Amino acid sequence: MQMGPRAPGMAGHDAVVTFITDVLRQYAAEVTTQPFKESTELGPPGREYDFTNIIGKFPGARQGEVLAVGAHFDTRPIADRDPDPAKRTDPVPGANDGASGVAVLLEMARALKAQAPPRSVLLIFFDAEDSGSATAPGPYHGFCLGSRYLAANMGSLRIDKLIVIDMIGDADLSIPKELNSRDAAPQLLDTVFQTARRLGHGAFDDRYGQRIVDDHLPFISQGIPAIDLIDFDYPYWHTTSDVAAHCGADSLLQVGDTLLEVIYADRW
Ligand SMILES: [Zn+2]
């Protein structure tokens, strides 16, 4: 958050790429960056931005399937849902919509270095999720550029299952079961929610939510079971009030603790 907004082309964007890469290099066995250039729905026509997906590998104690846990690190260039029209061209600070998922992933990286997972884990930091526009064409409306690029350019990267976390920092966190996740990977979704219940993490609410376009969809399209953990009921979504004061450390803890238990109990 101290780096400022992490929207395409902004100083904070480049700073956070360096920050995530540097922190990840302390913990992961291998860090891969995947640069790509693309224009966005919200940028000037023809302007291409430099984007970077960042991937940290944590080899498992034994060979086998690979679980990826991902979050987008970019923030929205415009706060187009702000109640004050004068602020709707300001960038979103992105405490919940951006930083929350990154915070959980970086803490998971520290844990996964301290204790190797039973099976291999990838932590993926997606760029360019949040520069779409509801009026743009196609199923993604210009969102999810980084995850779409990675899903289309996997190279030798193996991902057997994917858990995306997004907007999981709300101080009043309540995560329902997202509907695309239920359709694509009901077993993985149930495992995560059962694990949360067993740990007493009440932020996971065993009810069905909305159908949400997010970074899990490009992988579902490739036939990879993928789920999205997201609390879309956040009044500060895409406003200039998406700040740390509206987020809670306990929310991050509940999500990170649940995911680490899924990994270490080898339940995915
Ligand atoms: Zn967003």
Under the CATH scheme, which architecture would be assigned?
3-Layer(aba) Sandwich
* Mean pLDDT over the residues: 98
Radius of gyration equals: 17 Å
Order of secondary-structure elements: HEEEHEHEEHHEHEH
Could you give the order of strands across the largest sheet? 1-2-4-3-5-8
Summarize the structure.
By secondary structure, the chain is of the alpha/beta class. The protein is built from 7 helices and 8 strands; from the N terminus they run H-E-E-E-H-E-H-E-E-H-H-E-H-E-H.
What would you note in describing this structure?
There is one protein chain. β3, α2 (95-114) and β4 form a beta-alpha-beta unit. The mean pLDDT is 98. The protein contains 7 helices and 8 strands, in the order αβββαβαββααβαβα. It has a single domain, classed as Aminopeptidase, CATH 3.40.630.10. The strands form 2 sheets. The chain has a 6-stranded mixed beta sheet, with helices on both faces. The protein has helices spanning 11-27, 95-114, 145-152, 179-184, 186-199, 217-221, 249-264, and strands at 30-38, 49-58, 67-72, 121-126, 161-166, 175-177, 204-208, 226-230. Helices cover 32% and strands 19% of the residues. The protein has 268 residues and is an alpha/beta fold. α1 packs parallel to α2 (95-114) and α5 crosses α7. It is globular, with a radius of gyration of 17 Å. Bound molecules: zinc ion (ZN). Zinc ion is lined by residues 76, 97, 130, 238.
